[in-house]
Amino acid sequence: MSGYRFNNDISETLLIPLYMRAKESARKNDAIIHDPVARNLVSRIEYDYSKFDTAKMSEIGCAIRCRFFDDLVRDFASKHTDTVVVNIGCGLDARRQRTEEDALDTIFYSLDLPDTISLRRSLIPEAPGESYIPSSMFDTGWMKEIRARHPRSRILLIAEGVIMYFDEATLRQFFSDLCTHIGNAEIWFDTMGTLGIKNQNRHDALKNMEATFKWGINDGAILESWNPHLRLIEQVSPGRYFRSRQTMFMRILSTFPRLFFRFYSYVGYRIS
Description:
The chain is α/β, with parallel strands linked by helices. 38% of the residues lie in helices and 17% in strands. It has helices at residues 9-12, 15-25, 36-44, 56-79, 95-99, 114-123, 140-149, 168-181, 194-198, 248-253, 257-261; strands at residues 83-88, 107-112, 130-134, 154-159, 185-192, 230-236, 264-271. Strands 3-2-1-4-5-7-6 form a seven-stranded mixed β-sheet, with helices on both faces. Helix 2 (15-25) crosses helix 3 (36-44) and helix 2 (15-25) crosses helix 4 (56-79). The protein is globular.
Protein backbone atom coordinates (compact mmCIF):
# COMPACT_ATOMS: atom_id res chain seq x y z
CA MET A 1 0.00 0.00 0.00
CA SER A 2 1.45 3.36 -0.99
CA GLY A 3 1.96 6.15 1.54
CA TYR A 4 -1.28 7.09 3.35
CA ARG A 5 -1.88 10.68 4.39
CA PHE A 6 -3.46 11.10 7.82
CA ASN A 7 -5.92 13.92 8.37
CA ASN A 8 -4.57 14.87 11.78
CA ASP A 9 -1.45 14.51 13.90
CA ILE A 10 -3.08 12.28 16.50
CA SER A 11 -4.25 9.72 13.92
CA GLU A 12 -0.70 9.35 12.61
CA THR A 13 0.50 8.26 16.06
CA LEU A 14 -1.27 4.92 15.53
CA LEU A 15 1.76 3.86 13.47
CA ILE A 16 4.01 3.91 16.55
CA PRO A 17 2.29 1.07 18.45
CA LEU A 18 1.61 -0.75 15.18
CA TYR A 19 5.31 -0.85 14.36
CA MET A 20 6.28 -1.73 17.93
CA ARG A 21 3.79 -4.63 17.99
CA ALA A 22 5.24 -5.90 14.74
CA LYS A 23 8.82 -5.65 16.05
CA GLU A 24 7.90 -7.42 19.28
CA SER A 25 6.11 -10.19 17.41
CA ALA A 26 9.24 -10.84 15.35
CA ARG A 27 11.22 -11.81 18.46
CA LYS A 28 11.88 -15.54 18.49
CA ASN A 29 12.12 -16.56 22.14
CA ASP A 30 10.81 -13.90 24.49
CA ALA A 31 8.07 -12.03 22.65
CA ILE A 32 5.60 -10.42 25.05
CA ILE A 33 2.86 -10.41 22.42
CA HIS A 34 2.22 -12.22 19.14
CA ASP A 35 0.52 -10.06 16.54
CA PRO A 36 0.75 -11.43 12.98
CA VAL A 37 -1.72 -8.77 11.81
CA ALA A 38 0.70 -6.00 12.83
CA ARG A 39 3.59 -7.69 11.04
CA ASN A 40 1.53 -7.97 7.89
CA LEU A 41 0.36 -4.35 7.99
CA VAL A 42 3.82 -2.89 8.54
CA SER A 43 4.99 -4.72 5.45
CA ARG A 44 2.05 -3.32 3.46
CA ILE A 45 1.86 0.31 4.64
CA GLU A 46 4.59 2.43 3.09
CA TYR A 47 6.04 4.63 5.82
CA ASP A 48 9.45 5.58 7.20
CA TYR A 49 9.35 3.42 10.33
CA SER A 50 13.12 3.67 10.73
CA LYS A 51 12.73 6.86 12.75
CA PHE A 52 11.29 4.70 15.56
CA ASP A 53 14.11 2.14 15.60
CA THR A 54 16.05 3.91 18.36
CA ALA A 55 12.94 4.29 20.56
CA LYS A 56 13.78 1.39 22.87
CA MET A 57 11.65 2.55 25.81
CA SER A 58 8.61 2.92 23.54
CA GLU A 59 9.32 -0.46 21.98
CA ILE A 60 9.10 -2.34 25.24
CA GLY A 61 6.49 0.05 26.62
CA CYS A 62 4.07 -0.54 23.74
CA ALA A 63 4.51 -4.30 24.03
CA ILE A 64 3.83 -4.34 27.77
CA ARG A 65 0.87 -1.97 27.40
CA CYS A 66 -0.63 -4.11 24.66
CA ARG A 67 -0.23 -7.27 26.74
CA PHE A 68 -1.72 -5.56 29.81
CA PHE A 69 -4.89 -4.49 28.00
CA ASP A 70 -5.19 -7.80 26.14
CA ASP A 71 -5.03 -9.60 29.48
CA LEU A 72 -7.71 -7.26 30.84
CA VAL A 73 -10.02 -8.40 28.05
CA ARG A 74 -9.25 -12.06 28.78
CA ASP A 75 -9.81 -11.59 32.51
CA PHE A 76 -13.03 -9.63 32.02
CA ALA A 77 -14.42 -12.30 29.68
CA SER A 78 -13.51 -15.09 32.10
CA LYS A 79 -15.24 -13.43 35.06
CA HIS A 80 -18.46 -12.27 33.44
CA THR A 81 -21.07 -13.53 31.02
CA ASP A 82 -22.80 -11.35 28.43
CA THR A 83 -19.81 -9.06 27.95
CA VAL A 84 -19.06 -6.22 25.53
CA VAL A 85 -15.65 -4.68 24.82
CA VAL A 86 -15.26 -1.26 23.21
CA ASN A 87 -11.78 -0.49 21.88
CA ILE A 88 -11.73 3.33 21.81
CA GLY A 89 -9.25 4.88 19.38
CA CYS A 90 -8.59 1.42 17.96
CA GLY A 91 -6.38 2.60 15.09
CA LEU A 92 -4.96 -0.52 13.43
CA ASP A 93 -4.98 -2.61 16.59
CA ALA A 94 -6.08 -6.25 16.18
CA ARG A 95 -7.13 -6.80 19.78
CA ARG A 96 -10.11 -8.91 18.80
CA GLN A 97 -7.89 -11.27 16.81
CA ARG A 98 -5.31 -11.55 19.60
CA THR A 99 -7.89 -12.31 22.31
CA GLU A 100 -10.57 -14.12 20.31
CA GLU A 101 -9.67 -17.57 21.60
CA ASP A 102 -10.07 -16.47 25.24
CA ALA A 103 -13.04 -14.14 24.72
CA LEU A 104 -14.97 -16.04 22.09
CA ASP A 105 -18.45 -15.04 23.27
CA THR A 106 -17.55 -11.40 23.91
CA ILE A 107 -18.94 -8.80 21.52
CA PHE A 108 -16.33 -6.33 20.28
CA TYR A 109 -16.69 -2.78 19.00
CA SER A 110 -13.68 -1.01 17.51
CA LEU A 111 -14.14 2.77 17.44
CA ASP A 112 -12.13 5.49 15.74
CA LEU A 113 -12.53 8.53 13.51
CA PRO A 114 -14.18 7.86 10.13
CA ASP A 115 -10.96 8.26 8.10
CA THR A 116 -9.14 5.80 10.35
CA ILE A 117 -11.99 3.30 10.23
CA SER A 118 -12.01 3.61 6.43
CA LEU A 119 -8.29 2.76 6.38
CA ARG A 120 -8.88 -0.05 8.86
CA ARG A 121 -11.65 -1.59 6.75
CA SER A 122 -9.34 -1.68 3.74
CA LEU A 123 -6.64 -3.48 5.72
CA ILE A 124 -8.30 -5.48 8.51
CA PRO A 125 -11.69 -7.09 7.86
CA GLU A 126 -14.05 -7.15 10.80
CA ALA A 127 -13.40 -10.28 12.84
CA PRO A 128 -16.24 -12.57 13.96
CA GLY A 129 -18.17 -10.83 16.71
CA GLU A 130 -16.59 -7.44 15.93
CA SER A 131 -18.21 -4.26 14.57
CA TYR A 132 -16.51 -1.02 13.54
CA ILE A 133 -17.80 2.35 14.71
CA PRO A 134 -16.67 5.36 12.63
CA SER A 135 -17.09 8.10 15.20
CA SER A 136 -15.34 10.54 17.47
CA MET A 137 -14.95 9.12 20.95
CA PHE A 138 -16.65 12.29 22.21
CA ASP A 139 -19.87 11.71 20.25
CA THR A 140 -22.49 10.46 22.69
CA GLY A 141 -24.38 8.69 19.90
CA TRP A 142 -22.26 5.54 20.06
CA MET A 143 -22.57 5.43 23.84
CA LYS A 144 -26.36 5.51 23.69
CA GLU A 145 -26.50 2.98 20.86
CA ILE A 146 -24.25 0.41 22.56
CA ARG A 147 -26.17 0.58 25.81
CA ALA A 148 -29.47 0.34 23.90
CA ARG A 149 -28.21 -2.75 22.04
CA HIS A 150 -26.88 -4.35 25.21
CA PRO A 151 -29.04 -3.11 28.09
CA ARG A 152 -27.91 -5.75 30.59
CA SER A 153 -24.36 -6.46 29.41
CA ARG A 154 -21.19 -5.78 31.35
CA ILE A 155 -19.14 -3.34 29.27
CA LEU A 156 -15.36 -2.94 29.25
CA LEU A 157 -14.04 0.21 27.60
CA ILE A 158 -10.35 0.41 26.69
CA ALA A 159 -8.64 3.59 25.49
CA GLU A 160 -5.03 2.65 24.79
CA GLY A 161 -2.66 5.45 23.81
CA VAL A 162 -5.50 7.95 23.42
CA ILE A 163 -6.51 9.91 26.51
CA MET A 164 -3.31 11.94 26.93
CA TYR A 165 -3.77 13.81 23.65
CA PHE A 166 -6.80 15.79 24.87
CA ASP A 167 -7.23 18.66 27.31
CA GLU A 168 -8.86 18.36 30.72
CA ALA A 169 -12.11 20.16 29.86
CA THR A 170 -12.72 17.83 26.92
CA LEU A 171 -11.99 14.77 29.04
CA ARG A 172 -14.20 15.93 31.91
CA GLN A 173 -17.11 16.09 29.49
CA PHE A 174 -16.20 12.70 28.02
CA PHE A 175 -16.25 10.96 31.39
CA SER A 176 -19.44 12.77 32.36
CA ASP A 177 -21.09 11.50 29.17
CA LEU A 178 -19.92 7.95 29.86
CA CYS A 179 -21.43 8.09 33.34
CA THR A 180 -24.70 9.39 31.90
CA HIS A 181 -25.07 6.93 29.04
CA ILE A 182 -23.10 3.80 30.00
CA GLY A 183 -23.53 2.25 33.42
CA ASN A 184 -22.45 -1.14 34.76
CA ALA A 185 -19.10 -0.71 33.01
CA GLU A 186 -15.37 -0.34 33.49
CA ILE A 187 -12.97 1.91 31.64
CA TRP A 188 -9.22 1.39 31.54
CA PHE A 189 -6.65 3.61 29.89
CA ASP A 190 -3.03 4.69 30.11
CA THR A 191 -2.16 8.18 31.24
CA MET A 192 0.84 10.41 31.44
CA GLY A 193 1.89 11.98 34.72
CA THR A 194 2.92 15.60 35.15
CA LEU A 195 6.62 14.80 34.72
CA GLY A 196 5.80 12.83 31.59
CA ILE A 197 3.97 15.84 30.16
CA LYS A 198 6.77 18.21 31.14
CA ASN A 199 9.42 16.04 29.50
CA GLN A 200 7.49 14.97 26.41
CA ASN A 201 10.01 16.64 24.10
CA ARG A 202 12.36 13.82 25.18
CA HIS A 203 9.88 11.06 24.36
CA ASP A 204 11.87 8.68 22.20
CA ALA A 205 9.11 8.07 19.60
CA LEU A 206 6.74 11.03 19.81
CA LYS A 207 9.56 13.55 19.34
CA ASN A 208 9.55 12.51 15.68
CA MET A 209 5.89 13.51 15.24
CA GLU A 210 3.73 16.62 15.51
CA ALA A 211 1.21 15.40 18.09
CA THR A 212 1.60 16.52 21.71
CA PHE A 213 0.43 15.29 25.10
CA LYS A 214 -2.09 17.65 26.71
CA TRP A 215 -3.22 15.93 29.91
CA GLY A 216 -1.88 13.76 32.67
CA ILE A 217 -2.40 12.92 36.35
CA ASN A 218 -0.21 11.59 39.13
CA ASP A 219 -3.02 10.26 41.31
CA GLY A 220 -5.81 8.26 39.70
CA ALA A 221 -8.20 9.14 42.52
CA ILE A 222 -8.50 12.64 41.06
CA LEU A 223 -11.15 11.51 38.59
CA GLU A 224 -13.43 10.44 41.44
CA SER A 225 -13.90 14.14 42.17
CA TRP A 226 -15.01 14.72 38.58
CA ASN A 227 -18.12 12.56 38.85
CA PRO A 228 -19.69 10.62 41.75
CA HIS A 229 -20.27 7.63 39.46
CA LEU A 230 -16.53 7.11 38.82
CA ARG A 231 -14.66 4.87 41.25
CA LEU A 232 -10.98 4.06 40.90
CA ILE A 233 -10.34 0.33 40.62
CA GLU A 234 -6.55 0.47 40.46
CA GLN A 235 -3.62 2.55 39.31
CA VAL A 236 -0.86 0.34 37.95
CA SER A 237 2.84 0.90 37.30
CA PRO A 238 3.94 -0.73 34.02
CA GLY A 239 7.34 -1.16 35.66
CA ARG A 240 6.11 -4.22 37.54
CA TYR A 241 5.92 -6.28 34.33
CA PHE A 242 8.66 -8.02 32.33
CA ARG A 243 11.42 -6.35 34.30
CA SER A 244 14.15 -8.31 32.55
CA ARG A 245 13.21 -6.56 29.31
CA GLN A 246 13.05 -3.07 30.80
CA THR A 247 15.79 -0.48 30.43
CA MET A 248 17.93 0.15 33.50
CA PHE A 249 16.22 3.50 34.09
CA MET A 250 12.80 1.82 34.05
CA ARG A 251 13.95 -0.93 36.42
CA ILE A 252 15.11 1.63 38.93
CA LEU A 253 12.01 3.78 38.53
CA SER A 254 9.75 0.75 38.91
CA THR A 255 10.87 0.31 42.52
CA PHE A 256 9.10 3.59 43.34
CA PRO A 257 5.53 3.23 42.00
CA ARG A 258 4.37 6.67 43.12
CA LEU A 259 7.30 8.25 41.34
CA PHE A 260 6.55 6.12 38.27
CA PHE A 261 2.99 7.49 38.28
CA ARG A 262 4.41 10.99 37.83
CA PHE A 263 5.64 9.81 34.44
CA TYR A 264 3.09 7.24 33.33
CA SER A 265 0.58 4.66 34.57
CA TYR A 266 -2.44 2.51 33.72
CA VAL A 267 -5.71 3.34 35.49
CA GLY A 268 -9.09 1.65 35.69
CA TYR A 269 -12.46 2.97 36.89
CA ARG A 270 -15.83 1.47 37.60
CA ILE A 271 -18.76 3.40 36.14
CA SER A 272 -21.72 2.83 38.46
